[in-house]
Amino acid sequence: MKTPQKTPLSHIRNFSIVAHIDHGKSTLADRLIQMTGALGEREMKDQILDSMDIERERGITIKAQTVRLEYTHTDGEHYVLNLIDTPGHVDFAYEVNRSLAACEGSLLVVDAAQGVEAQTLANVYHAIEVNHEIVPVLNKIDLPAAEPERVKQQIEDVIGIDASDSVEISAKSGIGVEKVLEAIVERLPAPKGDEKAPLKALLVDSWYDLYLGVVVLIRVIDGRIRKGQKIRMMQAGASYELDRVGVFTPKLVEVGELGPGEIGFFTASIKEVADTNVGDTITDDRHPTEKPLAGFRPAQPVVFCGLFPVDASDFDDLRAAMGKLRLNDASFSFEMETSAALGFGFRCGFLGLLHLEIIQERLSREFNLDLITTAPSVVYDVVLTNGETLQLHNPADLPDPVKIEEIHEPWIKATILTPDEYLGAILKLCQERRGIQTNLSYVGQRAMVEYDLPLNEVVFDFYDRLKSISKGYASFDYQIADYRAGDLVKMSILVNAEPVDALSMLVHRSQAEHRGRQMCEKLKELIPPHLFTIPVQAAIGGRVIARETVRAMRKDVTAKCYGGDATRKRKLLEKQKEGKKRMRQFGKVEIPQEAFIKALRMGDD
Amino acid sequence: MSANSAFGVYIHWPFCAAKCPYCDFNSHVHHGAFDEVSFVEAYTKEIATTAARAPDRLVQSIFFGGGTPSLMNPASVEAILDAVARHWPVADNAEITLEANPTSVEAERFRGYRAAGVNRVSLGVQSLRPEPLARLGRLHSVEDAVAAVRLAQEIFPRSSFDIIYARPEQTLGEWEEELTDALALSAGHLSLYQLTIEQGTRYFDLFHAGKLKMPSEDLSADMFEMTQDLTASYGLPAYEISNHARPGQESRHNLTYWRYGEYAGIGPGAHGRLLINGARHATAAEKMPFKWWEKVMEKGDGLEVDDLLTWDEEGDEYLVMGLRLREGIDPNRYAALSRRSLAASQIDYLKDIGFIETLPNGRLRVTDKGWPVLDAVVADLAA
Fold this sequence. Notes:
Oligomer: heterodimer
Helix content of chain B: 40-55%
Order of helices and strands of chain B: EHEHEHHEHHEHEHHEEHEEEHEHHHEEH
Low-confidence stretches of chain B: none
Mean pLDDT of chain A: 85
Largest sheet of chain B: 9 strands, mixed
Shape of chain B: globular
Shape of chain A: globular
Number of helices of chain A: 13
Number of strands of chain B: 14
CATH class of the largest domain in chain B: Alpha Beta
CATH architecture of the largest domain in chain B: Alpha-Beta Barrel
Strand content of chain A: 25-35%
Distance between the termini of chain B: 32 Å
Structural class of chain A: alpha+beta
Low-confidence stretches of chain A: none
Strand content of chain B: 15-25%
Strand order of the largest sheet of chain B: 7-8-6-5-4-3-2-1-9
Radius of gyration of chain A: 28 Å
Number of domains of chain B: 2
CATH topology of the largest domain in chain B: TIM Barrel
Helix content of chain A: 25-40%
Number of strands of chain A: 33
Structural class of chain B: alpha/beta
Distance between the termini of chain A: 59 Å
Number of helices of chain B: 15
Mean pLDDT of chain B: 95
């Protein structure tokens, strides 16, 4: 263990990096770690802070990570720089907020060729809201397409901060990175805090480590925290004796104690991540602080879908896998669900579509599970005629329409930045999705358009459509705004006159016919011919709004029989029987599971 | 003796003069010299070994299939038949069939086969139209075929020939005319097969390269229906999904398969079903002719597979074979074989939609409506 070495507040800087995907946040973090000698060459690998495979592959950060950098400034003084890496995506906005709350300043990294993106905006506004000092950093300055002057102008126009003394760098080739370290020391404020006051620390994050148990990431505000100390989590009302106190360099290093302004971790005998509330105030059990910190609102799931194992016997494995993921991700929720179509599974809540995709991918990749995902839906507020309000997570649970007064749906404020040439198509898309335009402005060659949109139109396939109509150039970000009443109806899908619960959905009346037709057409292709014709219908209440027919099979017979080779015919029959096991039975109709997967696939117009 | 206690012997002769592009049977073209006498020795040896395992059966049918058995020297046929008769009792009226190609060369051997004891031939005519014959890779002409059929009818008490339909680019009208010619030529038994694309054949490659335009599902269904109607009106109704006969002219040997009786398989790649000590053995011999020969010479038989079937497997085999027959299956025999009954709910459902029916004698059969989709019906019934 290192001997506790007190760093004066004036020599500490806590900062995070705000950037759009691919603008070089992780590469810059890697360079900073490398230049301050936190890791030897041998230990360096790309994107050190993104420890999950998915993070590294997709170039995104999901969990906040922290690293303590030891830096000797040009003035000869020794500084401790704490970097908290934040997720960039809107789905993880709550993680961004708590990370930002633990720092005094931010580096705003913008690609010098691409300029400001929608996501950059959302995150930089969060930083401004918590009074961060912001240092703009123009990355990829060595690219031929780099236009630093134009991008600086854009930062000033769009974000409204002074960009004249932006640091120009190339994180990849190391150009200007030294200047970033200097700017952190010179331009970001030192933390404030009182070493003599009772302990007050912010619980920034926590996760489960196989060897250490629950690891709690903290930012000390006042007082000191040390190994062996008995602390109290004020909101949770639980007390623990600390086993370890330390920092990440990014390797885990025990230091024994931490003082004001410092960022580090502790472990205690905490069983589950769920026992720790992000934003909670940690204080000394015997000499508590008087006033806890403001804390955060817990993240609310906004997108729901059903996850079902393809093979029913994987149900227990799925439950165990979800439990494990939830250990590290309190924002992911799940409860058991039964579907006539898909058997036993779970209704799961996510922070957004990316979150959904990541969980789904981790379940299949890390736990080797074959899953069926039902169409994502949002949380509706259903106001009943008796005055009660019901939160509806699953369209299949919608009460009898006569008992419903009104249905409210979540709306978002969406910001889209796009090259001018795609603007027309994007406006059309937003209009089709019931969007209300609230702002349209130009930033150089790029248009910035703001829309209010119903979230249920976005979860369907908005993202994919946006990407395809803008050839990937448009960037998109959103915030949940409010709930508004909408003319929403439950559309049921009937196969051979039997409703298929997994396919029912809540849609706006104006979209129902289109969506119903789409679904019926898809199913017509996906349901194999049976011995009889099968009507496939979309209906609202008792009214059929779309219909297709799966033709009856006319010919299915092996004409030639090879002598006495009954084995071959039996094997064929066994194969057929095996195939039937992968079908779901609806009355007398067998629907292959692939059909559900395909029919429910998002954004597959 | 009940129908299913019949015993047949299948003899597989694996050689062909040329491989047909649609055929996935165990057939081989041998090049260069070949010692037929020593090859036949292996047959007699395998017959002896098999008879020792399954003795005391009364042979009611013998069937030479292939490959092309009509490439055999009549003396070879005689030697094999003698071997069968040495090891098993053979019924006086046993049906002894030989598959033959209708080339003029082969037709010359017909009298020899008859003298050896063959009393029924099945000719691989395949088409009565010149252009399709060439496309199917057949070595005979339409004239050869007609002449061979007539000659066979003269020499053998019973005969049959095969036609393949639902061929690439064939129309319903063309098939109707060709089938009419075939019916006029037939002496009482016809096998009418729809062309299927099998893996490992030249047609399979052509088909997947998009070079073979197969009839649509609708057209092949129409052809099937027309075939049923036309053959019935000529007095040759289907007694099996692809086999038509004037009553009494059915192939007794093939009925043994379909009725899930007992049969021995002799020769390369031949399959057998033998009841030994109350257990049903599924046997299959080594496919490669000369490997089979070595094996037989070494250990007495060429068996590659000798599996004991489970109750479920016996039930499945009885269903897939038996439901091909117009007479259907006996649900009690199914229950005896598989130790379980067919699901009543599945039977009711299939009856409701008109795909199966129960006959007054209690047998269960597929209806006219169900026949064209037999595989799906069987799968539903077995589910």
